[in-house]
Design a protein that fits this description.
This protein is of the alpha/beta class. The protein has an eight-stranded parallel barrel with strand order 1-2-3-4-7-8-9-10, surrounded by six helices. Strands 5-6 form a two-stranded antiparallel ribbon. It is globular, with a radius of gyration of 18 Å. It has one domain: TIM Barrel (Alpha-Beta Barrel), CATH 3.20.20.30. α1 packs parallel to α9 (about 275-290) and α6 crosses α7. α7 (about 210-225) links the parallel β8 (about 200-205) and β9. It contains nine helices and ten strands. One of its GO terms (molecular function) is oxidoreductase activity, acting on paired donors, with incorporation or reduction of molecular oxygen. This is Putative oxidoreductase.
Length: about 290
């Protein structure tokens, strides 16, 4: 089982010194990856419902710092050796896919192949409005951008003719260290699960009981088969809010039983005594599972 930290670029870890200390401690404790979140802006008094909390509002409030995930990951990459660098998630439809492909590939090249790209279509319509990106077509835009980026990462002279991105024989260097970048599809809906089955290297539902997760994973695998893809090649990731405390090992084993390959533990559980608490988790949970 792989272990990761969620919301790695938020809270106290938006501070540069604390970010470095946390990343190094997580690496030493045996965590496989750091997963960052993003919002370019959070419009004050937004009405769009946040789908991962019963209140409909983001945790931490509108003014909580959320450093750009790619810049934050670049910063901690320089101070670590092996821990993987993930977005979980990056709101792909809001980005220019050609520029993003170059940014992701450069970070992967400089970090020697440590990049994981978790993407989602977003939920905050007011943020899309502020960025001048249509909210209604974000799903189609997302899928087009995935194809565009993969073309740039894998083709010598990349060509892509999509509805939202279009280019011919473009050379982009450096390309990813391992030939491409793993793309993990975020989202808890059936639509997200089907998208993961069609085009994802991984699936990361934002919430769900074991039963709900198992159902979503079945949708991913069934869709992959229908598309002629290997369902077993799609890596399943799940949140690990319960993977802490005396029941942590049983929780992780339960997730493993339904096909989860990576458990992402919230970083806010390690806000206090960060280095010591991460080391304890490594000793008491990670080392006993692995």
């Amino acid at each position: 089982m792989k272990f990761a930290l969620a919301f790695a670029n938020t809270g106290p870890f938006s501070n540069p010194d604390k970010a470095i200390a946390m990343a190094q401690a997580a690496e030493a404790a045996g965590f496989e990856s750091l997963w960052t979140v993003e919002h370019v802006v959070v419009p004050s008094k937004y009405d769009s419902p946040y789908p991962y909390d019963a209140s409909g509002k983001m945790p931490g409030g509108e003014e909580s710092p959320i450093p750009d995930p790619l810049i934050w990951l670049s910063f901690v990459a320089a101070a670590t050796q092996s821990i993987k660098l993930a977005t979980g998630i990056l709101i792909l439809p809001q980005r220019n896919p050609v520029v993003l492909a170059k940014e992701i590939s450069t970070l992967d090249h400089l970090s020697k192949g440590r990049m994981l790209l978790g993407i989602g279509v977003g939920w905050l319509e007011e943020e899309f409005d502020a960025l001048g990106v249509p909210f209604a077509d974000r799903g189609k835009r997302n899928d087009d951008y995935v194809a565009a980026m993969r073309a740039l990462w894998t083709q010598e002279k990349a060509t892509h003719h999509g509805d939202f991105s279009y280019f011919d024989e473009c050379i982009m260097r450096p390309q990813p260290a391992n030939g491409t970048i793993p793309i993990h599809i975020g989202g808890h809906t059936d639509i997200a699960a089907r998208r993961a089955g069609r085009l994802g290297d991984g699936f990361f539902p934002g919430k769900g009981s074991h039963e709900q997760l198992a159902r979503s994973f079945d949708i991913v695998r069934d869709t992959a088969r229908q598309c002629g893809r290997d369902p077993d090649a799609i890596e399943m990731t799940a949140g690990g809010n319960g993977a802490i405390g005396p029941n942590a090992i049983n929780e992780v084993k339960g997730l493993s039983d339904i096909g989860v390959a990576r458990v992402i533990v919230p970083s806010f559980l390690f806000y206090r005594d960060t280095a010591d608490s991460l080391a304890r988790y490594g000793d008491e949970v990670i080392s006993k599972i692995n």
